[in-house]
Design a protein that fits this description.
21 helices; alpha/beta
Amino acid sequence: MTSQVSSPTEQADDALVGEQRKPVGTKDVRRLDRAVIRFAGDSGDGMQLTGDRFTAETASFGNDLSTLPNFPAEIRAPAGTLPGVSSFQLHFADHDILTPGDAPNVLVAMNPAALKANMADVPRGAEIIVNTDEFTKRAMQKVGYATSPLEDGSLDGYSVHPVPLTTMTVEALKEFDLSRKEAERSKNMFALGLLSWMYNRPTEGTEKFLATKFAKKPQIAAANLAAFRAGWNFGETTEDFAVSYEVAPAAQTFPTGTYRNISGNLALSYGLIAASRQADLPLYLGSYPITPASDILHELSRHKNFGVRTFQAEDEIAGIGAALGAAFGGSLAVTTTSGPGVALKSETIGLAVSLELPLLVIDIQRGGPSTGLPTKTEQADLLQAMYGRNGEAPVPVVAPMTPADCFDAAMEAARIALTYRTPVLLLSDGYLANGSEPWRVPEVDELPDLRVQFAQGPNHTLDDGTEVFWPYKRDPRTLARPWAVPGTPGLEHRIGGIEKQDGSGNISYDPANHEFMVRTRQAKVDGIDVPDLDVDDPTGEATTLVLGWGSTYGPVTAAVRRLREAGEHIAQAHLRHLNPFPRNLGDILASYDKVVIPEMNLGQLATLIRAKYLVDARSYNQVNGMPFKAEQLATALKEAIDAR
Protein backbone atom coordinates (compact mmCIF):
# COMPACT_ATOMS: atom_id res chain seq x y z
CA MET A 1 0.00 0.00 0.00
CA THR A 2 1.23 3.48 -0.77
CA SER A 3 0.02 6.76 0.57
CA GLN A 4 0.29 10.48 0.73
CA VAL A 5 0.49 11.67 4.34
CA SER A 6 0.70 15.33 5.25
CA SER A 7 2.67 16.90 8.07
CA PRO A 8 1.08 17.37 11.53
CA THR A 9 0.29 21.01 10.73
CA GLU A 10 -1.05 20.05 7.33
CA GLN A 11 -3.18 17.34 8.91
CA ALA A 12 -4.82 19.89 11.14
CA ASP A 13 -5.22 22.34 8.25
CA ASP A 14 -6.70 19.66 5.98
CA ALA A 15 -9.91 19.90 8.00
CA LEU A 16 -10.29 23.48 6.75
CA VAL A 17 -9.06 23.21 3.15
CA GLY A 18 -11.38 22.21 0.33
CA GLU A 19 -14.05 20.96 2.72
CA GLN A 20 -17.60 20.38 1.59
CA ARG A 21 -20.56 21.10 3.85
CA LYS A 22 -24.09 19.86 3.77
CA PRO A 23 -26.71 20.62 6.38
CA VAL A 24 -28.23 17.82 8.43
CA GLY A 25 -31.04 19.34 10.47
CA THR A 26 -29.41 22.22 12.29
CA LYS A 27 -25.87 20.84 12.03
CA ASP A 28 -23.30 20.74 9.27
CA VAL A 29 -21.31 17.79 7.99
CA ARG A 30 -17.80 18.63 6.86
CA ARG A 31 -16.09 16.27 4.46
CA LEU A 32 -12.43 15.49 5.19
CA ASP A 33 -9.95 13.31 3.33
CA ARG A 34 -8.39 12.02 6.56
CA ALA A 35 -8.59 12.24 10.34
CA VAL A 36 -6.39 11.23 13.26
CA ILE A 37 -8.10 10.48 16.58
CA ARG A 38 -6.53 9.57 19.90
CA PHE A 39 -8.39 8.14 22.89
CA ALA A 40 -6.48 8.52 26.16
CA GLY A 41 -7.23 7.67 29.77
CA ASP A 42 -6.28 5.44 32.68
CA SER A 43 -5.23 1.90 31.84
CA GLY A 44 -8.54 0.81 33.39
CA ASP A 45 -10.70 3.20 31.36
CA GLY A 46 -11.08 0.87 28.38
CA MET A 47 -9.24 3.02 25.86
CA GLN A 48 -7.92 0.02 23.92
CA LEU A 49 -11.41 -1.47 23.64
CA THR A 50 -12.81 1.92 22.61
CA GLY A 51 -10.14 2.31 19.94
CA ASP A 52 -10.63 -1.26 18.72
CA ARG A 53 -14.36 -0.71 18.29
CA PHE A 54 -13.91 2.61 16.47
CA THR A 55 -11.34 0.91 14.25
CA ALA A 56 -13.63 -2.02 13.49
CA GLU A 57 -16.46 0.27 12.43
CA THR A 58 -14.07 2.38 10.36
CA ALA A 59 -12.79 -0.73 8.60
CA SER A 60 -16.33 -1.91 7.87
CA PHE A 61 -17.10 1.55 6.45
CA GLY A 62 -14.32 1.08 3.92
CA ASN A 63 -11.67 3.61 4.98
CA ASP A 64 -8.00 2.86 4.81
CA LEU A 65 -6.59 3.00 8.32
CA SER A 66 -3.57 2.54 10.54
CA THR A 67 -3.54 2.29 14.33
CA LEU A 68 -1.12 2.82 17.21
CA PRO A 69 -2.15 1.32 20.57
CA ASN A 70 0.05 2.59 23.41
CA PHE A 71 -0.34 1.27 26.92
CA PRO A 72 1.68 0.89 30.13
CA ALA A 73 3.48 -2.31 31.06
CA GLU A 74 1.79 -2.51 34.47
CA ILE A 75 -1.41 -4.57 34.57
CA ARG A 76 -3.05 -1.75 36.51
CA ALA A 77 -0.86 1.29 36.98
CA PRO A 78 -1.80 3.78 39.73
CA ALA A 79 -5.00 5.56 38.72
CA GLY A 80 -4.63 9.14 37.56
CA THR A 81 -0.84 9.03 37.13
CA LEU A 82 1.21 9.77 34.03
CA PRO A 83 2.78 6.26 33.92
CA GLY A 84 -0.72 4.81 33.95
CA VAL A 85 -1.98 6.56 30.82
CA SER A 86 -3.19 4.28 28.03
CA SER A 87 -3.94 5.60 24.56
CA PHE A 88 -5.12 4.43 21.16
CA GLN A 89 -4.50 6.43 18.00
CA LEU A 90 -6.29 5.82 14.71
CA HIS A 91 -5.56 7.43 11.34
CA PHE A 92 -8.25 6.82 8.72
CA ALA A 93 -8.69 8.25 5.25
CA ASP A 94 -10.45 8.13 1.91
CA HIS A 95 -7.16 7.16 0.25
CA ASP A 96 -4.25 4.87 0.98
CA ILE A 97 -2.17 5.71 4.07
CA LEU A 98 0.88 4.25 5.74
CA THR A 99 1.13 5.50 9.32
CA PRO A 100 -1.12 6.09 12.33
CA GLY A 101 -0.48 9.81 11.89
CA ASP A 102 2.08 12.12 13.40
CA ALA A 103 -0.42 14.07 15.50
CA PRO A 104 -4.11 13.77 16.43
CA ASN A 105 -6.77 16.08 15.07
CA VAL A 106 -8.93 15.04 18.01
CA LEU A 107 -7.78 14.08 21.51
CA VAL A 108 -10.25 12.49 23.91
CA ALA A 109 -8.78 12.96 27.42
CA MET A 110 -10.56 11.05 30.15
CA ASN A 111 -8.60 12.69 33.01
CA PRO A 112 -5.84 15.24 33.72
CA ALA A 113 -3.08 12.64 33.35
CA ALA A 114 -4.31 11.73 29.88
CA LEU A 115 -4.38 15.40 28.88
CA LYS A 116 -0.92 16.18 30.18
CA ALA A 117 0.69 13.02 28.78
CA ASN A 118 -0.56 13.70 25.27
CA MET A 119 -0.56 17.48 24.84
CA ALA A 120 2.94 17.55 23.37
CA ASP A 121 1.60 15.67 20.33
CA VAL A 122 -1.52 17.77 19.75
CA PRO A 123 -1.16 20.54 17.11
CA ARG A 124 -2.63 23.98 17.68
CA GLY A 125 -6.19 24.21 16.46
CA ALA A 126 -6.96 20.56 17.13
CA GLU A 127 -10.09 19.53 19.02
CA ILE A 128 -9.80 18.31 22.61
CA ILE A 129 -12.70 16.54 24.30
CA VAL A 130 -12.17 16.59 28.07
CA ASN A 131 -13.99 14.62 30.75
CA THR A 132 -14.45 17.53 33.17
CA ASP A 133 -15.69 15.28 36.00
CA GLU A 134 -12.15 14.00 36.54
CA PHE A 135 -10.52 17.44 36.78
CA THR A 136 -10.64 17.64 40.55
CA LYS A 137 -8.02 19.54 42.50
CA ARG A 138 -6.46 16.32 43.80
CA ALA A 139 -6.36 14.67 40.37
CA MET A 140 -4.71 17.72 38.82
CA GLN A 141 -2.12 18.04 41.58
CA LYS A 142 -1.22 14.38 41.12
CA VAL A 143 0.14 15.14 37.65
CA GLY A 144 1.62 18.55 38.42
CA TYR A 145 -1.12 20.97 37.38
CA ALA A 146 -0.96 23.92 39.79
CA THR A 147 -4.07 25.40 38.17
CA SER A 148 -6.76 23.88 36.00
CA PRO A 149 -5.71 23.81 32.34
CA LEU A 150 -9.40 24.20 31.51
CA GLU A 151 -9.43 27.62 33.17
CA ASP A 152 -5.91 29.10 33.07
CA GLY A 153 -5.79 29.84 29.33
CA SER A 154 -3.21 27.18 28.48
CA LEU A 155 -5.65 25.56 26.05
CA ASP A 156 -6.72 28.78 24.31
CA GLY A 157 -5.09 27.69 21.06
CA TYR A 158 -7.27 24.60 20.84
CA SER A 159 -10.93 23.84 20.25
CA VAL A 160 -11.84 22.47 23.68
CA HIS A 161 -15.08 20.62 24.37
CA PRO A 162 -15.65 20.24 28.13
CA VAL A 163 -17.97 17.27 28.62
CA PRO A 164 -18.95 15.76 32.02
CA LEU A 165 -18.62 12.25 30.62
CA THR A 166 -18.82 10.43 33.95
CA THR A 167 -21.87 12.32 35.20
CA MET A 168 -23.71 11.96 31.91
CA THR A 169 -22.95 8.25 31.76
CA VAL A 170 -24.25 7.69 35.29
CA GLU A 171 -27.36 9.72 34.49
CA ALA A 172 -27.99 7.70 31.31
CA LEU A 173 -27.79 4.47 33.29
CA LYS A 174 -29.87 5.45 36.32
CA GLU A 175 -32.69 3.12 35.28
CA PHE A 176 -30.34 0.14 35.62
CA ASP A 177 -29.68 -1.55 38.93
CA LEU A 178 -26.01 -0.60 38.98
CA SER A 179 -23.82 1.02 41.58
CA ARG A 180 -22.25 4.35 40.64
CA LYS A 181 -18.87 2.67 40.26
CA GLU A 182 -20.33 0.05 37.91
CA ALA A 183 -22.11 2.72 35.88
CA GLU A 184 -18.94 4.82 35.59
CA ARG A 185 -17.18 1.94 33.83
CA SER A 186 -19.35 2.56 30.77
CA LYS A 187 -18.05 6.09 30.21
CA ASN A 188 -15.75 4.79 27.49
CA MET A 189 -18.85 3.64 25.59
CA PHE A 190 -20.35 7.12 25.99
CA ALA A 191 -17.14 8.56 24.50
CA LEU A 192 -17.26 6.00 21.70
CA GLY A 193 -20.85 6.94 20.91
CA LEU A 194 -19.96 10.63 20.81
CA LEU A 195 -17.00 10.09 18.46
CA SER A 196 -19.05 7.71 16.34
CA TRP A 197 -21.59 10.49 15.83
CA MET A 198 -18.86 13.06 15.29
CA TYR A 199 -17.32 11.06 12.43
CA ASN A 200 -20.46 9.38 11.09
CA ARG A 201 -19.26 5.89 11.95
CA PRO A 202 -21.58 2.88 11.65
CA THR A 203 -23.07 1.64 14.93
CA GLU A 204 -24.50 -1.79 14.13
CA GLY A 205 -21.21 -3.63 14.62
CA THR A 206 -20.60 -2.13 18.06
CA GLU A 207 -24.15 -2.91 19.17
CA LYS A 208 -23.73 -6.54 18.09
CA PHE A 209 -20.32 -6.67 19.75
CA LEU A 210 -21.68 -5.49 23.10
CA ALA A 211 -24.55 -7.98 22.96
CA THR A 212 -22.10 -10.82 22.26
CA LYS A 213 -19.38 -9.76 24.69
CA PHE A 214 -21.80 -9.49 27.61
CA ALA A 215 -24.20 -12.24 26.52
CA LYS A 216 -24.02 -13.86 29.96
CA LYS A 217 -24.60 -10.50 31.67
CA PRO A 218 -27.56 -8.99 29.83
CA GLN A 219 -27.87 -6.06 32.25
CA ILE A 220 -24.25 -5.04 31.65
CA ALA A 221 -24.79 -5.42 27.91
CA ALA A 222 -27.87 -3.21 28.04
CA ALA A 223 -26.08 -0.61 30.18
CA ASN A 224 -23.12 -0.35 27.81
CA LEU A 225 -25.46 -0.13 24.85
CA ALA A 226 -27.43 2.63 26.60
CA ALA A 227 -24.22 4.55 27.33
CA PHE A 228 -23.10 4.17 23.70
CA ARG A 229 -26.42 5.49 22.40
CA ALA A 230 -26.42 8.30 24.98
CA GLY A 231 -23.03 9.46 23.66
CA TRP A 232 -24.35 9.44 20.10
CA ASN A 233 -27.49 11.35 21.11
CA PHE A 234 -25.45 13.89 23.06
CA GLY A 235 -23.42 14.69 19.96
CA GLU A 236 -26.60 15.01 17.93
CA THR A 237 -28.36 17.38 20.36
CA THR A 238 -25.73 19.46 22.15
CA GLU A 239 -24.85 22.92 20.88
CA ASP A 240 -21.18 22.40 21.74
CA PHE A 241 -20.75 20.11 18.72
CA ALA A 242 -22.19 22.12 15.84
CA VAL A 243 -20.33 20.13 13.20
CA SER A 244 -19.76 16.46 12.46
CA TYR A 245 -17.25 15.08 9.97
CA GLU A 246 -17.35 12.64 7.12
CA VAL A 247 -14.39 10.70 5.74
CA ALA A 248 -15.53 8.82 2.65
CA PRO A 249 -14.56 5.19 2.00
CA ALA A 250 -11.27 4.61 0.22
CA ALA A 251 -13.09 3.29 -2.82
CA GLN A 252 -10.20 3.67 -5.27
CA THR A 253 -7.41 2.58 -2.93
CA PHE A 254 -7.58 -1.18 -2.93
CA PRO A 255 -7.67 -3.87 -5.63
CA THR A 256 -10.89 -5.85 -5.84
CA GLY A 257 -11.18 -8.46 -3.12
CA THR A 258 -12.41 -9.28 0.34
CA TYR A 259 -10.84 -7.13 3.04
CA ARG A 260 -10.72 -7.16 6.80
CA ASN A 261 -8.94 -5.19 9.48
CA ILE A 262 -6.00 -7.14 10.87
CA SER A 263 -3.24 -6.65 13.43
CA GLY A 264 0.31 -7.84 12.93
CA ASN A 265 0.10 -10.68 15.44
CA LEU A 266 -3.18 -11.89 13.97
CA ALA A 267 -1.73 -11.75 10.46
CA LEU A 268 1.28 -13.76 11.65
CA SER A 269 -1.03 -16.35 13.18
CA TYR A 270 -3.02 -16.68 9.98
CA GLY A 271 0.19 -16.84 7.95
CA LEU A 272 1.48 -19.71 10.06
CA ILE A 273 -1.78 -21.63 9.68
CA ALA A 274 -1.80 -21.02 5.93
CA ALA A 275 1.82 -22.18 5.68
CA SER A 276 1.03 -25.40 7.51
CA ARG A 277 -1.90 -26.10 5.19
CA GLN A 278 0.17 -25.32 2.09
CA ALA A 279 2.94 -27.58 3.40
CA ASP A 280 0.42 -30.29 4.38
CA LEU A 281 2.08 -30.46 7.80
CA PRO A 282 0.61 -30.11 11.29
CA LEU A 283 1.45 -26.80 12.95
CA TYR A 284 3.07 -26.99 16.38
CA LEU A 285 3.69 -23.97 18.60
CA GLY A 286 5.87 -24.32 21.67
CA SER A 287 5.77 -21.02 23.51
CA TYR A 288 5.99 -19.20 26.81
CA PRO A 289 3.82 -16.08 27.28
CA ILE A 290 5.67 -12.80 26.87
CA THR A 291 4.58 -9.31 25.82
CA PRO A 292 4.05 -8.48 22.98
CA ALA A 293 4.09 -12.00 21.45
CA SER A 294 1.45 -13.70 23.60
CA ASP A 295 -1.42 -12.91 21.23
CA ILE A 296 0.00 -15.40 18.71
CA LEU A 297 -0.24 -18.18 21.30
CA HIS A 298 -3.77 -17.09 22.19
CA GLU A 299 -4.89 -17.01 18.56
CA LEU A 300 -3.32 -20.28 17.43
CA SER A 301 -4.84 -22.10 20.40
CA ARG A 302 -8.27 -21.37 18.87
CA HIS A 303 -7.58 -23.30 15.65
CA LYS A 304 -7.33 -26.98 16.52
CA ASN A 305 -9.66 -27.60 13.57
CA PHE A 306 -6.73 -26.75 11.28
CA GLY A 307 -4.43 -29.27 12.92
CA VAL A 308 -2.78 -26.67 15.14
CA ARG A 309 -1.31 -27.86 18.41
CA THR A 310 -0.20 -25.28 20.99
CA PHE A 311 1.90 -25.94 24.06
CA GLN A 312 2.29 -23.30 26.76
CA ALA A 313 5.58 -24.30 28.32
CA GLU A 314 6.91 -23.53 31.79
CA ASP A 315 9.67 -21.33 30.39
CA GLU A 316 11.27 -20.11 27.19
CA ILE A 317 13.79 -22.94 26.97
CA ALA A 318 11.11 -25.60 27.30
CA GLY A 319 9.01 -23.85 24.66
CA ILE A 320 11.68 -23.95 21.97
CA GLY A 321 12.82 -27.41 23.05
CA ALA A 322 9.34 -28.77 22.48
CA ALA A 323 9.12 -26.98 19.14
CA LEU A 324 12.44 -28.42 17.97
CA GLY A 325 11.24 -31.88 19.00
CA ALA A 326 8.10 -31.32 16.93
CA ALA A 327 10.29 -30.34 13.95
CA PHE A 328 12.23 -33.59 14.36
CA GLY A 329 8.87 -35.37 14.37
CA GLY A 330 7.74 -33.85 11.06
CA SER A 331 5.69 -30.80 12.07
CA LEU A 332 5.92 -27.21 10.93
CA ALA A 333 7.36 -26.07 14.24
CA VAL A 334 7.19 -22.56 15.66
CA THR A 335 8.25 -20.80 18.83
CA THR A 336 7.26 -17.21 19.64
CA THR A 337 8.86 -14.75 22.01
CA SER A 338 10.29 -11.28 22.43
CA GLY A 339 13.91 -10.16 22.78
CA PRO A 340 14.68 -11.47 26.30
CA GLY A 341 13.19 -14.81 25.31
CA VAL A 342 15.42 -15.04 22.24
CA ALA A 343 18.42 -14.79 24.57
CA LEU A 344 17.12 -17.77 26.55
CA LYS A 345 16.38 -19.74 23.39
CA SER A 346 19.79 -19.12 21.84
CA GLU A 347 21.35 -22.48 22.76
CA THR A 348 18.45 -24.41 21.24
CA ILE A 349 18.53 -22.23 18.12
CA GLY A 350 22.17 -23.27 17.81
CA LEU A 351 21.12 -26.89 18.22
CA ALA A 352 18.58 -26.45 15.42
CA VAL A 353 21.38 -25.07 13.23
CA SER A 354 23.47 -28.14 13.99
CA LEU A 355 20.60 -30.58 13.49
CA GLU A 356 19.53 -28.71 10.34
CA LEU A 357 15.84 -28.91 11.07
CA PRO A 358 13.15 -26.41 9.98
CA LEU A 359 12.09 -24.21 12.89
CA LEU A 360 10.44 -20.77 12.91
CA VAL A 361 11.59 -18.48 15.72
CA ILE A 362 9.32 -15.42 15.84
CA ASP A 363 10.69 -12.46 17.76
CA ILE A 364 8.21 -9.65 18.41
CA GLN A 365 10.82 -7.06 19.34
CA ARG A 366 10.32 -4.63 22.21
CA GLY A 367 12.35 -2.03 24.06
CA GLY A 368 15.34 -3.51 25.90
CA PRO A 369 17.74 -4.53 27.27
CA SER A 370 16.52 -7.10 29.80
CA THR A 371 12.86 -6.48 30.68
CA GLY A 372 13.20 -3.00 29.20
CA LEU A 373 9.97 -1.52 27.87
CA PRO A 374 7.62 -4.52 27.51
CA THR A 375 4.76 -2.63 25.86
CA LYS A 376 6.84 -0.29 23.69
CA THR A 377 8.43 -0.91 20.32
CA GLU A 378 12.03 -1.18 19.13
CA GLN A 379 13.93 -3.04 16.41
CA ALA A 380 17.15 -3.61 18.30
CA ASP A 381 17.37 -7.43 18.08
CA LEU A 382 18.87 -7.56 14.59
CA LEU A 383 22.43 -8.24 15.70
CA GLN A 384 21.16 -10.76 18.25
CA ALA A 385 19.28 -12.53 15.45
CA MET A 386 22.39 -12.51 13.27
CA TYR A 387 25.05 -13.45 15.81
CA GLY A 388 23.46 -14.21 19.19
CA ARG A 389 24.67 -17.82 19.43
CA ASN A 390 27.93 -19.53 20.25
CA GLY A 391 30.07 -20.73 17.38
CA GLU A 392 29.35 -20.20 13.72
CA ALA A 393 25.57 -20.62 13.70
CA PRO A 394 24.12 -18.80 10.68
CA VAL A 395 20.34 -18.28 10.65
CA PRO A 396 18.21 -16.68 7.91
CA VAL A 397 16.43 -13.51 9.06
CA VAL A 398 13.27 -12.00 7.58
CA ALA A 399 11.25 -8.98 8.68
CA PRO A 400 7.70 -7.84 7.78
CA MET A 401 7.01 -4.23 6.77
CA THR A 402 3.43 -3.62 7.91
CA PRO A 403 0.81 -5.38 10.09
CA ALA A 404 -0.83 -7.01 7.05
CA ASP A 405 2.57 -7.94 5.59
CA CYS A 406 3.16 -10.17 8.62
CA PHE A 407 1.04 -12.79 6.83
CA ASP A 408 3.36 -12.89 3.82
CA ALA A 409 6.46 -12.75 6.01
CA ALA A 410 5.28 -15.84 7.91
CA MET A 411 4.74 -17.66 4.62
CA GLU A 412 8.21 -16.66 3.42
CA ALA A 413 9.88 -17.74 6.67
CA ALA A 414 8.16 -21.11 6.39
CA ARG A 415 9.30 -21.48 2.77
CA ILE A 416 12.91 -20.89 3.68
CA ALA A 417 12.82 -23.16 6.74
CA LEU A 418 11.19 -26.06 4.91
CA THR A 419 13.20 -25.75 1.69
CA TYR A 420 16.63 -25.35 3.30
CA ARG A 421 16.11 -27.30 6.56
CA THR A 422 17.15 -24.48 8.82
CA PRO A 423 15.80 -22.41 11.69
CA VAL A 424 14.58 -18.99 10.55
CA LEU A 425 14.24 -15.87 12.67
CA LEU A 426 11.31 -13.59 11.90
CA LEU A 427 11.69 -10.09 13.35
CA SER A 428 8.41 -8.28 13.91
CA ASP A 429 7.99 -5.67 16.67
CA GLY A 430 5.44 -4.21 19.06
CA TYR A 431 4.38 -1.50 16.60
CA LEU A 432 3.46 -4.06 13.95
CA ALA A 433 2.13 -6.61 16.43
CA ASN A 434 -0.48 -4.32 17.98
CA GLY A 435 -1.10 -1.97 15.06
CA SER A 436 -3.66 -2.78 12.41
CA GLU A 437 -4.60 -2.00 8.81
CA PRO A 438 -6.86 -3.40 6.08
CA TRP A 439 -5.76 -6.73 4.62
CA ARG A 440 -6.97 -8.36 1.45
CA VAL A 441 -7.77 -11.99 2.20
CA PRO A 442 -5.85 -13.99 -0.44
CA GLU A 443 -7.35 -16.76 -2.50
CA VAL A 444 -5.93 -20.20 -1.74
CA ASP A 445 -4.61 -20.59 -5.27
CA GLU A 446 -2.51 -17.44 -4.74
CA LEU A 447 -0.52 -19.07 -1.94
CA PRO A 448 2.77 -20.87 -2.62
CA ASP A 449 3.04 -24.64 -2.62
CA LEU A 450 5.16 -25.47 0.43
CA ARG A 451 4.87 -29.25 0.36
CA VAL A 452 8.01 -31.17 1.26
CA GLN A 453 9.07 -34.75 0.60
CA PHE A 454 10.15 -36.72 3.64
CA ALA A 455 12.90 -39.29 3.25
CA GLN A 456 11.37 -42.68 2.43
CA GLY A 457 14.33 -45.06 2.27
CA PRO A 458 18.08 -45.48 1.84
CA ASN A 459 19.88 -42.74 -0.07
CA HIS A 460 23.49 -43.92 -0.13
CA THR A 461 25.37 -47.03 -1.22
CA LEU A 462 28.49 -48.08 0.68
CA ASP A 463 31.60 -49.45 -1.01
CA ASP A 464 30.44 -52.99 -0.25
CA GLY A 465 27.11 -52.37 -1.97
CA THR A 466 25.06 -51.97 1.21
CA GLU A 467 22.26 -49.42 0.91
CA VAL A 468 22.03 -47.11 3.94
CA PHE A 469 20.42 -43.85 4.98
CA TRP A 470 22.77 -40.91 5.39
CA PRO A 471 21.04 -38.05 7.25
CA TYR A 472 23.53 -35.43 6.04
CA LYS A 473 23.65 -36.30 2.36
CA ARG A 474 22.62 -33.03 0.81
CA ASP A 475 20.51 -31.75 -2.05
CA PRO A 476 23.15 -30.35 -4.42
CA ARG A 477 21.02 -27.27 -5.20
CA THR A 478 19.86 -26.21 -1.74
CA LEU A 479 22.44 -28.06 0.41
CA ALA A 480 19.47 -29.17 2.55
CA ARG A 481 19.73 -32.53 4.23
CA PRO A 482 16.89 -35.08 4.05
CA TRP A 483 14.07 -34.80 6.59
CA ALA A 484 13.48 -38.22 8.12
CA VAL A 485 10.42 -38.75 10.29
CA PRO A 486 11.23 -40.89 13.37
CA GLY A 487 9.82 -44.38 13.11
CA THR A 488 10.29 -44.72 9.36
CA PRO A 489 11.85 -48.19 8.85
CA GLY A 490 15.47 -48.09 7.74
CA LEU A 491 15.98 -44.42 8.50
CA GLU A 492 17.50 -44.78 11.97
CA HIS A 493 20.16 -42.12 12.50
CA ARG A 494 21.99 -40.26 15.24
CA ILE A 495 20.93 -36.79 16.31
CA GLY A 496 22.46 -34.32 18.74
CA GLY A 497 24.51 -31.19 19.20
CA ILE A 498 27.96 -32.70 18.79
CA GLU A 499 29.55 -32.18 15.39
CA LYS A 500 28.56 -34.74 12.76
CA GLN A 501 30.48 -36.45 10.02
CA ASP A 502 29.51 -35.13 6.62
CA GLY A 503 27.05 -37.51 5.06
CA SER A 504 26.83 -40.28 7.64
CA GLY A 505 25.99 -38.04 10.62
CA ASN A 506 28.30 -40.04 12.89
CA ILE A 507 29.96 -38.14 15.73
CA SER A 508 33.15 -36.56 14.46
CA TYR A 509 35.94 -34.55 16.07
CA ASP A 510 38.00 -34.42 12.88
CA PRO A 511 39.25 -30.82 12.35
CA ALA A 512 38.91 -30.91 8.57
CA ASN A 513 35.37 -32.28 8.78
CA HIS A 514 34.35 -29.59 11.29
CA GLU A 515 35.61 -26.84 9.02
CA PHE A 516 33.81 -28.40 6.08
CA MET A 517 30.52 -28.62 8.01
CA VAL A 518 30.81 -25.04 9.30
CA ARG A 519 31.45 -23.72 5.82
CA THR A 520 28.68 -25.87 4.35
CA ARG A 521 26.09 -24.60 6.84
CA GLN A 522 27.15 -21.04 6.03
CA ALA A 523 27.03 -21.72 2.30
CA LYS A 524 23.51 -23.11 2.66
CA VAL A 525 22.29 -19.87 4.22
CA ASP A 526 24.27 -17.72 1.78
CA GLY A 527 22.72 -19.63 -1.11
CA ILE A 528 19.09 -19.13 -0.08
CA ASP A 529 17.07 -17.89 -3.04
CA VAL A 530 15.66 -14.47 -2.14
CA PRO A 531 14.19 -11.91 -4.57
CA ASP A 532 16.27 -9.01 -5.79
CA LEU A 533 15.70 -5.75 -3.95
CA ASP A 534 13.38 -3.29 -5.68
CA VAL A 535 14.29 0.39 -5.64
CA ASP A 536 11.66 3.12 -5.80
CA ASP A 537 13.37 5.92 -7.73
CA PRO A 538 10.72 7.41 -10.06
CA THR A 539 12.90 9.96 -11.86
CA GLY A 540 16.21 8.12 -11.74
CA GLU A 541 17.82 11.41 -10.73
CA ALA A 542 18.19 10.72 -7.00
CA THR A 543 21.66 10.70 -5.48
CA THR A 544 20.41 9.78 -1.99
CA LEU A 545 18.98 6.37 -1.10
CA VAL A 546 17.04 5.75 2.09
CA LEU A 547 17.30 2.09 3.07
CA GLY A 548 14.98 0.63 5.69
CA TRP A 549 13.86 -2.64 7.18
CA GLY A 550 10.93 -3.87 9.22
CA SER A 551 8.31 -1.52 10.61
CA THR A 552 10.07 1.67 9.51
CA TYR A 553 8.48 1.12 6.08
CA GLY A 554 5.38 3.22 6.76
CA PRO A 555 7.07 6.32 8.24
CA VAL A 556 9.95 6.18 5.75
CA THR A 557 7.65 5.89 2.75
CA ALA A 558 5.42 8.70 4.02
CA ALA A 559 8.50 10.91 4.53
CA VAL A 560 9.86 10.10 1.08
CA ARG A 561 6.57 11.01 -0.56
CA ARG A 562 6.49 14.35 1.27
CA LEU A 563 9.96 15.18 0.01
CA ARG A 564 9.06 14.26 -3.56
CA GLU A 565 5.98 16.46 -3.40
CA ALA A 566 8.31 19.28 -2.35
CA GLY A 567 10.42 18.67 -5.46
CA GLU A 568 13.24 16.61 -3.96
CA HIS A 569 14.77 13.58 -5.68
CA ILE A 570 15.21 10.67 -3.29
CA ALA A 571 15.24 6.90 -3.77
CA GLN A 572 13.87 4.31 -1.39
CA ALA A 573 14.47 0.59 -0.84
CA HIS A 574 13.20 -1.64 1.94
CA LEU A 575 14.71 -4.95 3.03
CA ARG A 576 12.64 -7.99 3.92
CA HIS A 577 15.57 -10.40 3.80
CA LEU A 578 18.32 -9.46 6.24
CA ASN A 579 20.25 -12.72 6.04
CA PRO A 580 21.12 -13.36 3.35
CA PHE A 581 20.86 -9.92 1.80
CA PRO A 582 19.46 -9.72 -1.75
CA ARG A 583 22.20 -10.37 -4.26
CA ASN A 584 21.79 -7.01 -5.98
CA LEU A 585 22.06 -4.97 -2.78
CA GLY A 586 25.76 -4.19 -3.25
CA ASP A 587 25.21 -2.81 -6.75
CA ILE A 588 22.28 -0.70 -5.56
CA LEU A 589 24.27 0.82 -2.70
CA ALA A 590 27.18 1.61 -5.01
CA SER A 591 24.91 3.52 -7.41
CA TYR A 592 24.03 6.28 -4.92
CA ASP A 593 26.25 8.97 -3.45
CA LYS A 594 24.54 8.86 -0.04
CA VAL A 595 22.80 6.06 1.84
CA VAL A 596 20.66 6.87 4.89
CA ILE A 597 19.39 4.08 7.16
CA PRO A 598 16.67 5.00 9.69
CA GLU A 599 16.33 2.44 12.49
CA MET A 600 14.69 2.13 15.89
CA ASN A 601 18.05 1.13 17.36
CA LEU A 602 21.52 2.63 17.46
CA GLY A 603 22.51 1.62 13.94
CA GLN A 604 22.50 -2.17 13.69
CA LEU A 605 21.63 -2.54 10.01
CA ALA A 606 23.99 0.33 9.25
CA THR A 607 26.77 -1.61 10.99
CA LEU A 608 26.09 -4.68 8.84
CA ILE A 609 25.92 -2.62 5.64
CA ARG A 610 29.17 -0.81 6.39
CA ALA A 611 30.95 -4.06 7.23
CA LYS A 612 29.76 -6.07 4.23
CA TYR A 613 29.69 -3.46 1.47
CA LEU A 614 32.22 -0.85 2.72
CA VAL A 615 29.58 1.85 2.22
CA ASP A 616 29.63 4.96 4.40
CA ALA A 617 25.97 4.56 5.33
CA ARG A 618 24.53 7.28 7.56
CA SER A 619 22.40 6.24 10.51
CA TYR A 620 19.32 8.03 11.73
CA ASN A 621 18.30 6.44 15.00
CA GLN A 622 15.55 6.55 17.59
CA VAL A 623 15.11 4.35 20.67
CA ASN A 624 12.32 6.02 22.66
CA GLY A 625 9.85 3.14 22.46
CA MET A 626 7.73 4.83 19.79
CA PRO A 627 7.74 4.56 15.98
CA PHE A 628 9.19 7.31 13.83
CA LYS A 629 6.99 10.22 12.81
CA ALA A 630 6.88 10.96 9.10
CA GLU A 631 7.61 14.68 9.50
CA GLN A 632 10.60 13.91 11.71
CA LEU A 633 12.04 11.57 9.08
CA ALA A 634 11.30 13.97 6.25
CA THR A 635 13.33 16.66 8.03
CA ALA A 636 16.24 14.29 8.65
CA LEU A 637 16.25 13.03 5.06
CA LYS A 638 16.15 16.57 3.70
CA GLU A 639 19.21 17.40 5.79
CA ALA A 640 20.96 14.33 4.39
CA ILE A 641 20.13 15.34 0.83
CA ASP A 642 21.49 18.84 1.40
CA ALA A 643 24.64 17.75 3.26
CA ARG A 644 27.90 17.94 1.35
